[in-house]
Amino acid sequence: MTVTTVTTTRGPVRGERRADGSLRFLGIPYAQPPVGELRFAAPVPPEPWSEPLDATAYGPTAQRRPFADVTTIPEPSVPGAGVLNLNVFTPGIGPGTDSGTAPDAGLPVLVWIHGGGYVAGSAASPWYDGSAFNRDGVVLVSLGYRLGIEGFLHLDDAPDNRGVRDWIAALEWVRDNIARFGGDPAKVTVAGQSAGGGAVQTLLAVPAARGLFRGALSVSGAVMRPDGPEVARAASRLFTARTGVPATAAALRDLSDDELLDLQDRMGAPGPDREGLPPLLSLAPFADGDLIPEPVLDALTTGDAGADVPLMLGFTAHEFNAFPAPGPDGPPTPFLLGALGLAEEKVAAFTTAYAADGPDTLFGQALTDVTFRAPSLAVADARAARERPTWLYQFVWESPVNGTAFHCLDLPYAFDLLGAEGVTAVAGEAPPRALADAMHGAWVAFVRDQDPGASWPRYTVEERATMLWNAESRVERDPLREVREIWLD
Q: Catalytic: which of 75, 218, 319, 376?
């Protein structure tokens, strides 16, 4: 291993030069470890250091337990307190950087925020390696942030949306340091998938994040609905009612990680006392009236949030189709569909539209639509009506493993990492190379030029041009009309 040193604003970091000539610096702290008095505080810049910090291995992750026993994305949990760290993958620039400052190559930058339902996930995943982006002249930064209770539960004696504050602190680190790694702080695109895609949409609605990025890429973005301080307070009351522990930093600060996660599991269990809370998200960014002034979807569909920021967004066709309907009765009843927000007069149209997929997939498709497809379509339509630069896509390639285009399946194609650990398990032995070339190429073009290229026109009210990612990808005019008519009209 050939080591390379770069001096950041807080101190020198020593990374490694890889076999392809690119460089990676792992586990760089952008804030102090959130422990003790800082556990539920806003992020605080790290104390300066003078000796080179070893940045050749991934730093600690906020994830202590994976989202499930088996997850689509390999998501390592790394022990340690310093979870507010990030990773920089950059092309090989110059003969070396041991002089202390990397040459300013002015390269575009992609900042990646991982998913995991805001309660899990890991920036140390091999699916987020930046090698292909480096090959194509893009610097990639991936970051960790506080999850679950520590990141998002409303506490009466702590700042709200601590995880969001972590994202902003990481973006400020990028602004102040990325030129030393060859990137241009004026050419930052923020991107993420699932909860990370929701993070992107949230950051568009956060005034404190303005100017920290010029482009946004939301992949299967999920945001809280209903949203607002009253929903957050209701989640805190549910936490206390179920656990007997006050929803305060003072009561939670000294608990072990396992103790806190056990309380989180009790809070998240199903039950009739969850009435009025989102069906999937209770621990997530919410409009607190301060950092996030208004509900994110309201800000993006009726307000001016992100008006000057080019946005690429989309989803897979069958995100959550594998989810069974709750209870012993099999296919979802109109009551269950209504609980997800489907109007009574639309139930027949919904069941007819997806009849060919079989009754066992209806509840999962409803979750897919209400969590991902309909909200993102609403954002795209609203931005198009205001002539804001927007590109919409749907990933429709169906894996031979289960015959669907499911949640997370698109990421190895976007990152052009078809050989990464775990990809063949979800995409089969021969994932189509043409799809990776096209999808990754569009991402690179968007990060570089804020436009994915001439073959993918903007989304407009007149055409509603939508990219359908497949083995042979194509742009189609308004292919999601049925989703709009069922869920939005």
A: 319
